[in-house]
């Protein structure tokens, strides 16, 4: 079988060129301009960033993609679905306000913004998952599925539950409606180490389900009737007091995410772009952004989202950690156990291989790729 082709270019921009021109060249070389966009509605799935976070992709990148779609006769729109957790993107009105605040508008991007699952995150479509082992019908934002062509534009970074956030996460988790996100997250629910909890209440401020309360000892307690297992409290705890007791929980989340991604792209033209820069330790859903754990790598593009994620993670694992970053801090902590993986060393309770393995198994793509450098 022929290897999947992944195209790559770095972020170097000598005098007379620009990173945006290089992105345009990359996606043309990777085959995007050969797609049929004529009079097609084109969903460009990206993350608008939680206000306060500064590592999300700039609107300028979206404009490059949107402009090419228009040049080729298509009608593009930027899209994302509402979040499950508390924050400023949990309904369409707040989500649009957040996008505008972070610089996304028809003027800056050259196209409209449509929140994929509607006003309250309830406007979805049940899409069959061919070959799915966990999900029979994925709950995908209606606007995402109404599009004729799908493009993912991804900020590749670390993630507190899935190891890294790449194309598959941008597609699978990002295109799930609120109940779709709940379905993906619901397998594992966190526990609290009362010995480590200091009662700072940061976790409760970030819980979208009001599932965390405090007893007389001022230690956190989780109401499992309310908890949906999203894992956000794990990521925001500065004292490692909240953890997942089920080692298979993240693996199941990863496999469900792959099945959701397959539901989104099956049966229609799709193209995928990942920018590996500002590699923050956690998701852009956080209302803050820590310094990058690794140096910037470059831009990748492919018709295969599995090959794309594999190429991005392979490139990251060849780099040295940035001194002073969370990854560097973890590696110098007492009792550190080297997992020989930058993302797992940053957040030891995570892993990412199950996602790519399952994605390949169900036919989403291939981990075997040819890297074509421009």
Automatic annotation (TrEMBL):
Residues 188-217, 218-247 form the 4Fe-4S ferredoxin-type domain. It comes from the Bacteria. Keywords: 4Fe-4S, Iron, Iron-sulfur, Metal-binding. It holds the Pfam family DUF362. InterPro entries: 4Fe4S_Fe-S-bd, DUF362, Fe-S_Ferredoxin. PROSITE patterns: 4FE4S_FER_2. PANTHER family: ADENYLYLSULFATE REDUCTASE, BETA SUBUNIT (PTHR43687), FERREDOXIN III (PTHR43687:SF1). This is DUF362 domain-containing protein.
């Amino acid at each position: 079988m022929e290897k999947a082709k992944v195209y790559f270019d770095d972020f170097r921009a000598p005098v007379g060129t620009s990173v945006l021109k290089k992105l345009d060249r990359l996606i043309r070389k990777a085959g995007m301009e050969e797609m049929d966009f004529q009079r097609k509605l084109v969903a460009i799935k990206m993350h608008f960033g939680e206000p306060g976070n500064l590592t999300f992709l700039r609107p300028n990148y979206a404009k490059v993609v949107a402009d090419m779609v228009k040049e080729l006769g298509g009608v593009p729109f930027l899209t994302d679905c509402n979040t499950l957790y508390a924050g400023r993107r949990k309904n369409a009105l707040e989500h649009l306000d957040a996008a505008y605040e972070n610089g996304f508008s028809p003027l800056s991007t050259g196209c409209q913004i449509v929140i994929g699952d509607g006003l309250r995150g309830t406007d979805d479509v049940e899409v069959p998952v061919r070959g799915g082992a966990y999900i029979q019908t994925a709950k995908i934002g209606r606007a995402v599925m109404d599009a004729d062509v799908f493009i993912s534009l991804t900020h590749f970074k670390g993630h507190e539950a899935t190891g890294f956030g790449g194309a598959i996460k941008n597609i699978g988790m990002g295109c799930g409606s609120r109940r779709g996100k709940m379905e993906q997250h619901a397998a594992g629910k966190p526990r609290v180490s009362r010995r480590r909890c200091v009662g700072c209440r940061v976790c409760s401020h970030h819980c979208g389900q009001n599932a965390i309360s405090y007893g007389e000892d001022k230690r956190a307690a989780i109401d499992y009737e309310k908890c949906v297992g999203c894992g956000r409290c794990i990521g925001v705890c500065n004292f490692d007091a909240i953890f997942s007791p089920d080692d298979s929980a993240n693996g199941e989340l990863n496999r469900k995410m792959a099945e959701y991604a397959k539901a989104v792209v099956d049966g229609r033209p799709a193209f995928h772009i990942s920018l590996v820069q500002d590699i923050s330790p956690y998701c852009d859903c956080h209302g803050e952004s820590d310094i990058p754990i690794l140096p910037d790598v470059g831009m990748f593009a492919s018709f295969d989202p599995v090959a794309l994620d594999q190429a991005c993670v392979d490139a990251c694992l060849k780099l040295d950690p940035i001194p002073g970053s969370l990854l560097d801090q973890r590696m110098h902590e007492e009792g550190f156990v080297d997992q020989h993986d930058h993302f797992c060393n940053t957040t030891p309770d995570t892993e990412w291989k199950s996602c790519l393995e399952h994605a390949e198994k169900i036919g989403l793509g291939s981990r075997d790729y040819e890297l074509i450098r421009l």
